[in-house]
Design goal:
Length: 265
């Protein structure tokens, strides 16, 4: 019924610019919990911190290769309120984040509240100031699905290729398209904070493999990690872990090849 009403109303809708909505909306929130909740629904600062710890430990760093990633600098693409930057700054000497929103002061306030001082925030157009091969771990969680266009995927994969250190690694989460191909939501159908970019997992991996070696991937993940697998407990997320095609691991061993022997489902 709701869907039918939306379809009827569609020709009269003005549409909502996806990118502008992410840029401008966060600056409206003065209250910290409301600010954090814009990016990841929450009812308290503690809840945000607890969920960040769980997402960091059980999802973002939960792959075998994480143990051998050097711990100098990491970069989060789309840091939002800063909850995962806080977690990553506990594992790395320095945590950097890039985003497009206009409320970096509020993110800084949250990071200070969490007592972290080794974090730097960058606007997207400042990414070029980072040195080539200077980042050991690049991650992005619930962000690629909010891009306004598929060209953003190419932009960030290009930056990852340039920035990833020789022994580095990336872990990217994205929203699965349930049918084939790529779906970009029309601004007329876009609703605030909803996903706007859906990608068929095989296509995403194919694009990643052009420039990298895939170590591990998952096309279907559990929605609630603490609950058993079931047809109801499926999230819309998919993920890929990847490294340079020729990788210099810390022991000076060189890994070469485009094969993916460690690839897991
Ligand atoms: C749902 S929030 C997730 C924030 C954070 N990763 C987390 O898990 O709490 C999505 C974030 O993606 C950012 N974003 C949207 N489009 C972006 C783009 N083109 N480049 C960088 N960040 C973007 C938004 O500004 C927002 O901070």
């Amino acid at each position: 019924m709701k869907r039918m009403l939306r379809a009827l109303w569609r020709p009269f809708r003005k549409g909502l610019d996806v990118e502008r909505s992410w840029m401008e909306s966060p600056a409206k929130f003065r209250d910290m919990v409301k600010f954090l909740s814009w990016f990841d629904k929450t009812s308290s600062i503690q809840e945000t911190m607890d969920r960040a710890e769980s997402d960091w430990g059980k999802l973002i760093t939960a792959f075998d290769d994480y143990r051998q990633v050097p711990r100098r600098r990491c970069l989060e693409i789309g840091f939002g309120g800063g909850r995962l930057l806080v977690e990553s700054s506990k594992d790395f000497e320095h945590a950097l984040g890039v985003d497009i929103h206009n409320a970096f002061d509020k993110t800084r306030e949250y990071i200070a509240l969490a007592g972290r001082t080794n974090v730097t925030l960058l606007h997207k157009d400042e990414l070029d100031t980072l040195e080539d091969a200077s980042i050991d771990f690049i991650f992005s969680f619930i962000v690629f699905q909010h891009f306004h266009a598929h060209s953003e995927v190419d932009f960030y994969l290009g930056q990852i290729k340039r920035l990833m250190s020789p022994a580095g690694c990336a872990h990217i989460f994205f929203r699965r398209n349930e049918t084939s191909g790529i779906k970009v939501v029309d601004p007329k159908d876009f609703r605030q904070r909803h996903s706007s970019l859906f990608i068929e997992p095989a296509l995403f991996r194919e694009r990643v493999r052009r420039d990298f070696r895939v170590l591990e991937y998952q096309d279907e993940m559990k929605k609630h990690l603490d609950q058993p697998e079931s047809p109801q407990n499926v999230s819309g997320q998919a993920r890929v872990v990847f490294v340079h095609k020729v990788r210099h691991v810390p022991s000076d061993r060189v890994e070469v090849g485009t094969e993916q022997p460690g690839e897991r489902r």
